[in-house]
Amino acid sequence: MTTTASNSSGDDIHSDKETQYQQQHTLAVDITDVTGITDITDSKPPDSPLSLKETNYPEPLVFEPSKDIRELSQGGGLQMALQTLVASIFTALVLLMPLTIIFAFIYVSWARLPLAAYVAFCYLDPAVDNGVGRRIQWVRRLGVWKYVNAYFPVRIVLEKKLDPSLNYIFGVSPHGILCFSGQVVMGSQKSGLDEALAGITAHPAALHHALRLPLFGAYLLAIGAISSSRRSIRKCLASGKGQSVGIVIGGAKESFYTNRGSRRVILKNRKGFVREAIMAGAPLVPTFVFGENDIFFQVEHPALRRLQEWLQSKMMFALPVFYGRFGIVPRRTPLTSVFAAPIFVEKNANPSHDEINKVHAEYLVQLHRLYNRFKPIYDPEGGDLVIG
What we know:
Structural class: alpha/beta
Shape: globular
Strand content: 5-15%
EC number: 2.3.1.22
Number of domains: 1
Number of strands: 15
Protein name: 2-acylglycerol O-acyltransferase 2
Keywords: Acyltransferase, Transferase
Organism: Kickxella alabastrina
């Protein structure tokens, strides 16, 4: 794994753009309504007293893929075909794992009793609510991750090195279709995140019901996922130094806005993660994953959207209709996870609405600033960030 400052990374075009950016001041942001967060622009200084104004940030730390992954990613022919095959199988398994048990139960009569016992275990599995999951390191080290990381490929960028003695809440945007950032970046040892966040264990938060699903839930727990319930997040943040959680703030609803070129995130009325950060005294780290929304195309139609939103309101998870290359083959899009400098909060076991709104406003300011800082480098053709 190669670690560099941005102006010495392996990509010259990245270096030039980052150098140009470093010569500018960070954008100013106008919060027109601190309680509702109705608009964000780059024309006026921020009203929020927490905001960082006209501050030059140090050069970020860039964690490039390891040498073997870089060489694999740059290879062609058979190597490229193997990466594509592995990425396609990976996507198919994520989609089909929950259905495997159903088909086996219907068509394999001798397996019904053990399958029923396994389903019961999944429903009662204590690891779902224990706050740390059931992280299995050999699963996170599997060779398949090497090819998945090379296919996209993955890069980690930190604005500031994080203190491993603290617990953090990483607010991750956008969700994307299958939330590859949570799986490939946080779930795999090959992504370089373990090195970038040395001493910090970042647990991706997943829907409680997803962790109860046979096979799929076991897979999520193995890569370190925990339940996104309040109880589980609080247990995680209280379980020891460095224990942290990554929450995809926009959730299932945000996946409906996933499409190539779309940069819309759902955050205006999502404040629960801020409350949990204040209650635990855990710094908030705005995180944006460039490339997440460009992996698949989504079929969009008003009637289909109404049906999807109705189903999402009943089932608590989204059912976007999407496609990639040749069906479910994901588009080969670099995934760059950029972590902002942490927003420190004062611990308060019973935060007021005003306190939550104030920190939430600052979070939106910093996410917008982060996006505008790194967009010219990692997403020059992307649209403006829209916070809904």
